[in-house]
Every structure is written in structure tokens, then in C-alpha cells.
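quick q for whoever's on today - can somebody do inverse folding on this one?? i tried earlier but teh output was garbage lol. C-alpha cells:
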């Protein structure tokens, strides 16, 4: 998501948390738009202060965990706050679109600008294989009905006079799940959506939002129940300090204990290694990993033909939650996540009660004035392996499975670094042919480019995040061989 939109979202989350911690949650929540845009303030983004407040209200509704699409403008934020307190179940649709913030961008198309020189060579017309480009009154013209948006004419034009007009949210979605509806604004088709979160990161207006579960988590913390945080491996690259100080900070924020999900990643890697050996012995040509929630959603909704090749092993979140519930059956288990896809997975797992993303955890630290660097390190009950802690970036899963085998050379990995239209076509090809290219027999699939450190709710750049994770993993033990 564009920088200023991220700051806006974080400020609202911090204010929601502070309102919850205050003596009057409903009234303090109602006042959020007015506190952020007081009378007489210069309007930074929109036409007027009233539009600014309306959009802040919508963002706050999403922060309280409600869909904007169902908002009744006559209902105050105070009422939404009250409903959030009374809520006993959460909605399984994880994203919502703020129509007030959506610009209703122009349609995706290839367009000839005024820079066209009507040159003699006509490279644009010869480049187009579909007859979509013609010359009218000495200038290039594109027939939208014939155009396949292949961009051959864009690449051929020597004056850069032909451009592709993109709708960022639509262009980012690998499965065509977000489109403009009859009102002209973005709308999500949840039957297609794989919860990759690309649209939330792509929209420069911050119009696509996750629906937060922060109030539900805060209610659980305030109750007498034990609340346990399960932190994903990629978190090691997101916050200042180390994961041992982070554990102390999370406990200081109100949680009773913290589990590394890398502990579950060790189980995943070991089980996938065993399964890989079994599949190769029975003659399978390849196996794909199964730990990415976005990829698993893709399989269910768009790529069922690859299912026979997908590992049956559960995700690190699954195994970690299983351990938590085994030790503390009545505890509230909260997965701390880099992406929206894990929210979708949590609805399929009775052992995971809520999901909090990195942005929300950061907002909780700010609201409670917790400095991670000032916290004393706290040990984890189980120390995870080097390889499990590397699950958070591309190549880490395949390397973990490989390292768990005595015969590491038996694995020839192929890495799908991010799901997009090209990589989905590549996976379809593997599924239909039953083989991978270059003799590959282990396909690691990560929905986000770069892996989990590229998730939509991450708060650090990938280069720095990977470096921090590698520093931690280099100090860790190696995974046990099967």
C-alpha cells in the first residue's frame, strides 16, 4: 500500500486500541474522525474536511472488523464500537472496499497518447498480431475490441507514445477477483479471491482494507482466558530487537505466552521430507509444498488439477496451534501473520481463534508505549531450527525439506516466487503434463514475491527483513535428519 495510506491505517488502528483501553470506548471511537481532522485543519488529501472524515470513518469501521459494503451512513462509529464489543463471531470475508476512497480508476486498456508521431515505419501496426492497431488521420488508433493487451505495440513504439493504462488493484490480482461493479467502484468476488492481499498493497488510495480482528483479540486479553500468540517465522525481520525481546514485548502487551511458529515449521519440513521420499518411491514425478495459505486457496478455487501433486502435510500454523491447544485446551490462540491469506486458513482450523497481522501488532505496541529494544530477552520453550526460521523467505521451505533428508541431492527444487498469471500458467502446465521442467521434483510455491517477507501486512523492506532473519537462523541449530 502507498506510504501515506499505510500511515493513515496505522494511526487509526492505534486510536482504536487507545479507545478500547480508555474509560469510554464507544465515545472515543466516535470521535476518531474529528480528532484526526479537527475543524480548521488544512485538508491533506480530499476535496473537503467532510470527505476526509467520511473516509476515516470507513477505515475505522474496517478496523473494528466490519464490512464497509454493509455500512448504513446513519449509524455512528460509537454504535459500531458497541457492536464490536458484543460480537461473538467474526465474518469469514477478510477484505472490504471503501467506496468513498476508491477513485473508480479508468478501465485497463492500451492507449495511444498525443506523443504519437505517425511515423513512416509503422512499427506498432506490424507488431500487433491481432490487427488492433490502425492509422487514422496520420495517428495510431487502437481497437479495444481486438486488443489483447499483449503490449507488443507498447514495446515497439520508438517514442513511448503507447502506454498501458492500468487499474492497480485489478492489475495486481492474479485471479481476476477484483473488478469494477455496476457502480463503477471496485468490488471483490469472494468465490474467486485467494486472499493474497495484492489489492490491499496495490491500491494507491488505500481503498481495499483487511477487516481487523483487533477488538476481538483485545476482548480476549481483557477476559480471564489465557491468550497465546503464535508468531510466524517472517516476524524476525519486521521489528527492532530480536525475537527474544519481541516475546517479552508481546507478553507486556497482554498475551500470556508466545510460541514460535517456526516450531511448527520444523514439523512441516520433517513431514514433507518423509512424504517426498514416499511419493518418489511410488513413482511420482514431483511434489509441491503446501505451507502457503494463498497457494492452497488457489488450488481450491482455480487449480484443482494440481491437487494430486500437492503435499498432504499441514502448515506450520496448523502444527503450532495443535501444540498450543494440546497444552492449553481452553486458551485463545492468536496467529501473528504477515498476510491476509492466513485469516482465510484460520477459518478452516478450529485451533486458531484469531489472526493479528504485523501492522496491528505494531499499532498495539505504539498504543501501549512498548519499546521492544527496552525489553529483556525471554526464552522460548522450544528452540526452532535454522531451516524452520528461514521459512519466511523464498527458497526457505524447499531448503528445509532438503536439509531434513540424508540424501539431500535427491531433491531438485523449482521455486515459484510469487503467484501471477505467468506462474499460474506454469503450474497448470506442470499439472497437465505431469512433469516439471529441468528434472525438478520439488516445487516450492510462495504466493507473495520474496515469500512471507513480501506479505501485504509486512512493515519492513524485504532486503533488510531477509538479512535480519538470516542473522537469527545462523545462530540456530540445524534441523534433524529423518
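ok took a stab at it. sequence:
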Amino acid at each position: 500500500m502507498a506510504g501515506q495510506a499505510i500511515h493513515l491505517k496505522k494511526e487509526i488502528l492505534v486510536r482504536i486500541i487507545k479507545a478500547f483501553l480508555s474509560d469510554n470506548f464507544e465515545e472515543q471511537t466516535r470521535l476518531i474522525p474529528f480528532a484526526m481532522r479537527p475543524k480548521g485543519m488544512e485538508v491533506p488529501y480530499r476535496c473537503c474536511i467532510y470527505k476526509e472524515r467520511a473516509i476515516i470513518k470507513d477505515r475505522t469501521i474496517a478496523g473494528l472488523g466490519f464490512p464497509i459494503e454493509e455500512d448504513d451512513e446513519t449509524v455512528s462509529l460509537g454504535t459500531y464500537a458497541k457492536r464490536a464489543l458484543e460480537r461473538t463471531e467474526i465474518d469469514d470475508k477478510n477484505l472490504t472496499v471503501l467506496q468513498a476512497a476508491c477513485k473508480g480508476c479508468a478501465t485497463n486498456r492500451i492507449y495511444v497518447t498525443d506523443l504519437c508521431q505517425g511515423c513512416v515505419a509503422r512499427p506498432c501496426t506490424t507488431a500487433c498480431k491481432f490487427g488492433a492497431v490502425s492509422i487514422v488521420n496520420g495517428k495510431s488508433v487502437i481497437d479495444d475490441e481486438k486488443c489483447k493487451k499483449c503490449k507488443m505495440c507498447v514495446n515497439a513504439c520508438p517514442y513511448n507514445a503507447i502506454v498501458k493504462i492500468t487499474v492497480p488493484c485489478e492489475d495486481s490480482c492474479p485471479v481476476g477477483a477484483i473488478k469494477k461493479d455496476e457502480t463503477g467502484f471496485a468490488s471483490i468476488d469472494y468465490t474467486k479471491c485467494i486472499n493474497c492481499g495484492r489489492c490491499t498493497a496495490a491500491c494507491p488510495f488505500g481503498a481495499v482494507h483487511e477487516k481487523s480482528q483487533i477488538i476481538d483479540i483485545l476482548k480476549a486479553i481483557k477476559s480471564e482466558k489465557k491468550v497465546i500468540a503464535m508468531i510466524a517465522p517472517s516476524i524476525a525481520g519486521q521489528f527492532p530487537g530480536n525475537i527474544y525481546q519481541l516475546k517479552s514485548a508481546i507478553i507486556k502487551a497482554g498475551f500470556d505466552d508466545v510460541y514460535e511458529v517456526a516450531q511448527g515449521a520444523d514439523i512441516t519440513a520433517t513431514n514433507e521430507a518423509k512424504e517426498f521420499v514416499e511419493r518418489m518411491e511410488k513413482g511420482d514425478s514431483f511434489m509441491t509444498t503446501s505451507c502457503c495459505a494463498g497457494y492452497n486457496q488457489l488450488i481450491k478455487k482455480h487449480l484443482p488439477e494440481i491437487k494430486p501433486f500437492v503435499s498432504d502435510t499441514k502448515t506450520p500454523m496448523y502444527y503450532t496451534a495443535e501444540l498450543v491447544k494440546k497444552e492449553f485446551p481452553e486458551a485463545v490462540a492468536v496467529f501473528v501473520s504477515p498476510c491476509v491469506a492466513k485469516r482465510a486458513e484460520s477459518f478452516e482450523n478450529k485451533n486458531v481463534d484469531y489472526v493479528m497481522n504485523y501492522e496491528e501488532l505494531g499499532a498495539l505496541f505504539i498504543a501501549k508505549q512498548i519499546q521492544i529494544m527496552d525489553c529483556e530477552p525471554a526464552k522460548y520453550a522450544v528452540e526452532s531450527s535454522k531451516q524452520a526460521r528461514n521459512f519466511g523467505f523464498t527458497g526457505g521451505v524447499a531448503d528445509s525439506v532438503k536439509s531434513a533428508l540424508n540424501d539431500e541431492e535427491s531433491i531438485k527444487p523449482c521455486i515459484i516466487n510469487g503467484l501471477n498469471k505467468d506462474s499460474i500458467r506454469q503450474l497448470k502446465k506442470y499439472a497437465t503434463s505431469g512433469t516439471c521442467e529441468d528434472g525438478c521434483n520439488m516445487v516450492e510455491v510462495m504466493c507473495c514475491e520474496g515469500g512471507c517477507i513480501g506479505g501485504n501486512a509486512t512493515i519492513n523492506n524485504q532486503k533488510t527483513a531477509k538479512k535480519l532473519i538470516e542473522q537469527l537462523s545462523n545462530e540456530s541449530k540445524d534441523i534433524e535428519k529423518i
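fwiw The two ends are 42 Å apart (CA to CA). also The longest helix spans residues 262-281. so keep that in mind when u check it
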